[in-house]
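ok so i was messing around last nite and threw this chain in just to see what happens. nothing serious, just curious
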Amino acid sequence: FDDEFYVPHSRHTEFLKADVEKVPELTILAESDGRAGVYAVANLEKRQFFITGHAEYDPLSLKSEYDRDMAAGVDNVEVPINYYPDDDPTKTPVVRWRSVANLLFTNWLNYYVYQETPYELDSLYKSHDSID
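result:
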């Protein structure tokens, strides 16, 4: 990832850095200096990854959630930061996370699935009787 990147993050998520740091098997891979906090954590030995943001969101998912909560009169609904130009919900949201989503998925698939899968070609050929 770039040194700085944006990913939609739920305002209801609480994933405290101090809690993660209590578990020696976990490594924080990405976090925000701001309110979003921890984004990606891994147990590299067990090939486990924990992602707290929503890189899978389409361009209007966060807007739909915000609009829904505003219409329902939910208390303390804040405008999603770095989502609308100038943080103005009357403007069209800007997608700033698509490359992060693609990179997250392709890196995981490549390094932790494809490259770690034991391929024994001899056993593949033996399982197919003669293919002449």
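not much to say yet. DSSP finds four helices and three strands in the chain.
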